[in-house]
Structures are given as structure tokens and as C-alpha cells.
């Protein structure tokens, strides 16, 4: 008797809204405040000024990023509600047209004409399920969590603040902006490499390439800010 073999579990990424929000907030938090601090390091001689400006930017950036996350979440909820109301209205006023659309969608999924017609006849008996089917398979819309807007706002803002404090922390421990920039660059580069590696790994991309790409982006932003500040100073 041939022993049964167990198929290996499939490896899929279950992406969550929280993971996406952390990635958005942390990636911007690591690069934008670092670029600002680098630019100021080339123009001022006081670490205190860099710290003050950096903290102000982190606060402003966190609020702006959080507000952006909230508005994006609310827009998704409002858009879904508007489309849901429209579908309910169409089912009520033009049921024959909507019924034909359901049958066409089922045939596109591979069902035979007879099976599609039978499935349509059963589905349209329940207007709620009928509309839900149209929302998902005609419009490609999933019902969003109405609480997600607040969750995204706090998650993105918090991730941005954490990311921004990492490069700024070096200026608290060094005597001059130039020393702070050196250590800030080392710390931020290491964090960008680690963050880019794990981000790419979780999203199914090449980890090493992703790490190098994120580090290069942060370094380019910082270098541009630094030299622009030096030019303005001159």
C-alpha cells in the first residue's frame, strides 16, 4: 500500500493594512528627517538647531502622514458606500439588465450557459447577496473596515515618528552637526538596509536588491539635501 504524502503548505503573503501602513510611515520617516538633518548639517554649526528642526519636522510630518492615511481610508469607505447605493438602485430599477450582467460574469468565470443561468436565478432571489456579488465581481470592490481610517492614521504617524527619531538620535550624542551627520548616516544606512531587506522578503521580492534600493534612495535624498544647503550657504 502506497503511503499517503502530505503536500507542503503553500507559501503566500497575507498582506494586511497595518503592514502596509507601517511600511509607508517607516520608509518616509527614515528618509525625510534624515535628509533634512543632513541638509542642515551642511549649513549650521549647532547640533541644537538640527535637533530642534528635526523634531519639528517629525511632529509635522507625523501629523501630515497620519492625516493622509485617515483621508485615504475615509475616501475608500465613502467610495464603497456610494457604489453600494448605486448598485442597490440599479437592482431595484433595472433588474433585467443587472441580471444579464450577473449571468455574463458567471460565464466569464467558466460556467456553462445552463449552469450560469441556474446560478443567476438563485442568486437574484436575495437582493443583498446579489448586490454584494456585483460589488465584488463587477466593480472589484471589497467592503472596507470603517475603523481602518483611524487605525491607518495612528499607525502611519507612529511609524513615521519612530523612523524619524532613528537618524536624529545621533545628534543628541555628538558635539557638532558634522559628527552627528556621520553617525546618523551610519545608523540610518544600516536601518534602511535591514528594513529594505525584510520589506522585500515579506512582499516576495529579492531581499538583497530591495535592501540596496532602499538604502540608495535614502542616501540620494540626504546627499541632495546636504549639497543644496551648502550651495545656499555659499
Name the descriptors.
234 residues, mainly alpha, 8 helices, 80% helix
Textual characterization of the structure:
It is a single chain. With 234 residues, this protein is mainly α. The chain is built from 8 helices and no strands. It has helices spanning 17-41, 47-93, 95-108, 113-123, 127-138, 148-172, 177-202, 207-233. Helix 2 (47-93) packs across helix 3 (95-108). The radius of gyration is 26 Å and the shape is elongated.
Number of strands: 0
Give the biggest sheet: none
Q: Return the string of H and E elements.
A: HHHHHHHH
Overall shape: it is elongated
Number of helices: 8
State which percent range the strand residues make up: under 5%
C-alpha end-to-end distance: 85 Å
Helix fraction bin: over 70%
Mean pLDDT reading: 80
Report the uncertain regions.
1-15
**Which class of secondary structure composition applies to the elements?**
mainly alpha
Radius of gyration, in Å, reads 26 Å
Helix and strand layout, with pairings?
Elements: H1 17-41, H2 47-93, H3 95-108, H4 113-123, H5 127-138, H6 148-172, H7 177-202, H8 207-233
Summarize the structure.
By secondary structure, this protein is an all-alpha fold. The protein has eight helices and no strands.
Amino acid at each position: 500500500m502506497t503511503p499517503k504524502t502530505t503536500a507542503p503548505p503553500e507559501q503566500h503573503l497575507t498582506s494586511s493594512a497595518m503592514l502596509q501602513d507601517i511600511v509607508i510611515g517607516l520608509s518616509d520617516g527614515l528618509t525625510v528627517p534624515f535628509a533634512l538633518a543632513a541638509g542642515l548639517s551642511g549649513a549650521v554649526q549647532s547640533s541644537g538647531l538640527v535637533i530642534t528642526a528635526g523634531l519639528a519636522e517629525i511632529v509635522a510630518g507625523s501629523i501630515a502622514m497620519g492625516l493622509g492615511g485617515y483621508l485615504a481610508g475615509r475616501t475608500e469607505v465613502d467610495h464603497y458606500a456610494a457604489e453600494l447605493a448605486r448598485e442597490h438602485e440599479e437592482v431595484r430599477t433595472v433588474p433585467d439588465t443587472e441580471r444579464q450582467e450577473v449571468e455574463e460574469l458567471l460565464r466569464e468565470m467558466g460556467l456553462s450557459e445552463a449552469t450560469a443561468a441556474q446560478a443567476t436565478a438563485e442568486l437574484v432571489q436575495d437582493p443583498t447577496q446579489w448586490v454584494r456579488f456585483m460589488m465584488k465581481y463587477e466593480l472589484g470592490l471589497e467592503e472596507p473596515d470603517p475603523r481602518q481610517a483611524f487605525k491607518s492614521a495612528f499607525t502611519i504617524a507612529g511609524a513615521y515618528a519612530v523612523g524619524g527619531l532613528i537618524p536624529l538620535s545621533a545628534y543628541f550624542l555628538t558635539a557638532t552637526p558634522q559628527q552627528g551627520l556621520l553617525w546618523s548616516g551610519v545608523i540610518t544606512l544600516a536601518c534602511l538596509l535591514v528594513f529594505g531587506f525584510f520589506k522585500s522578503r515579506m512582499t516576495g521580492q529579492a531581499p538583497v536588491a530591495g535592501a540596496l534600493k532602499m538604502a540608495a534612495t535614502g542616501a540620494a535624498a540626504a546627499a541632495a539635501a546636504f549639497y543644496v544647503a551648502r550651495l545656499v550657504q555659499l
